Structures are given as structure tokens and as C-alpha cells.
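Obj: model holo form, ligand = adenosine-5'-triphosphate.
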Amino acid sequence: MTPLVDVRDLRVRYGRYEAVKGVSFTLGRGEILGIVGESGSGKSTIAKTLIGLQKASGGTVTNRARATQMIFQDAVGSLNPRMTVRQTLAEVLAHARGRRGRTDERGGKGADMERLLALVGLSAAVLEQYPREMSGGQCQRVSIARALACRPEVLIADEPVSALDVSVQARVLNLLRDLRRDLGLSILLIAHDLAVVKNVCDRICVMERGVFVDAGAAEQVFAHPTSDYTRRLLAAVPDVERALALS
Ligand SMILES: Nc1ncnc2c1ncn2[C@@H]1O[C@H](COP(=O)(O)OP(=O)(O)OP(=O)(O)O)[C@@H](O)[C@H]1O
Ligand SMILES: [Mg+2]
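Output (holo C-alpha cells):
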């Protein structure tokens, strides 16, 4: 089947520094692909290039999705501090409705907002709250809801849980899995530790200094890592994973 996103030999430079040195991957419909690597390896650069925030200096990016949205590591910071959840969601829903050219307002607004809240497991009680009044996990759910307003086919999640407590991490990761199941969403999940992606991703790419040093089905990368770098990342997994399993 034709993948939704097809990236071939992607290269990205910042001036003379090449942050991404020729990476290739595909994202299929309804698939969750993990990109894992330590700080500075080039993960966010790939994400930014996919949504057009950064220009590629080589290779090709083919994105066949109707809409692609991105959510960020700093959920609290990515929300407007002066807007309640209701205002934040109303704004993106109005924009999404405009793009769909829908004129029928009957039952539209309220129903859409309830649908978004339900999708991310939030109750209507948060609607009048400001970001500073919510937990990090709640803020991340709001930013996911905001991303879903335009009914994207592809969601890019750039370290969506690194700022969250471990127990909350597991719940947000489960939410991503539910969204894939319920909406058929394709997800690119970026993380710096393997524990985060292990139980969520179908396939994993391990990135080191601008290149992929391991790639394959999640179980395969865990069971048979081919690079020392992946083995080092794996060695750091157990503690976090135990905490995730307990939550
Ligand atoms: N706008 C920029 N200008 C110059 N260099 C940049 C810019 N953005 C990123 N870089 C450099 O490119 C490299 C890759 O950065 P990138 O943000 O993609 O890494 P990352 O894997 O997302 O890291 P982290 O885990 O810290 O988020 C780093 O060395 C970084 O310093
Ligand atoms: Mg990053």
C-alpha cells in the first residue's frame, strides 16, 4: 500500500551545519512510527521539515495526508496563557469549519467541542480553565484536542510526554494509541528514550547525529539492536519501563 508519508534521503542544513544527513522512512495509514535519539540528533528538525517549518536541503518529502498537525513537548507553553480551553478550542474549530466551508451552525459548535474533549478524555469541567490552572497532562490533552480539530490524518508528536511525570506519560501514550484505533490516525512519535516508544510504536527508527543507525519493527529493534548506540539506549530503559508498567 502507498504510504501516507514517504521521506527519501532527507538532508537538512542550518548554514554550514548538516543536522539531518540523509534519512529515509515511510509512515503508513494508521501506523505509529517512533523516532528515538538523544538530544541534538536531529529529530525535531525532521518534524519541522515535514510540516514545512524548515526547508530540506536535499532528498524528497512526499506527504499525501489531507492535513498534518504537530504537538509539542512543552504543552503548557504551547497554549495561549490568556485563553481558556473553551476559547482555544473555539478558535481552531471555527478555523476548521471555515476550511470545510460548512455553513450549518446548528448543533455544530457545542457538538464539535464535546467530541474533541471526549476524544482526549477530558471533562467539560476544564472548559473555563486557563493553562496555568491545569496539570501538565491536562494541558497536553488540550493541545492534542486542538491538533485534532481540523481532523488531520497525520499527527506529529514531538516529545509529547518528556515534560510529564512518568505515570502521566503512560496515560498520554495510551491516548495516542486510542486515537490511532478510533480515528485511524497515523502518528510520528518522537522521543529521546526507548521506553516511551516501546509499547506504542509499530516500527522504530533510532537516530544518532543526523542518521538512522537502527530501524525496524519495534520488537525487532528491542530484541536485536544492530548498533552500539541502540544498545546504550536500551540499557537505560528498564527503570522507566518498570515505572510505566506500574502506572
Ligand atoms: N535553528 C537552528 N539553527 C542552527 N542550528 C540548529 C537549529 N535548530 C537545531 N539546530 C541544531 O541541529 C541539531 C539537531 O537539532 P534538533 O532540534 O533537530 O535535535 P533533536 O534531536 O530534536 O534534539 P532534542 O532532543 O534536544 O529536542 C542540533 O545540533 C541543534 O543544535
Ligand atoms: Mg527536539
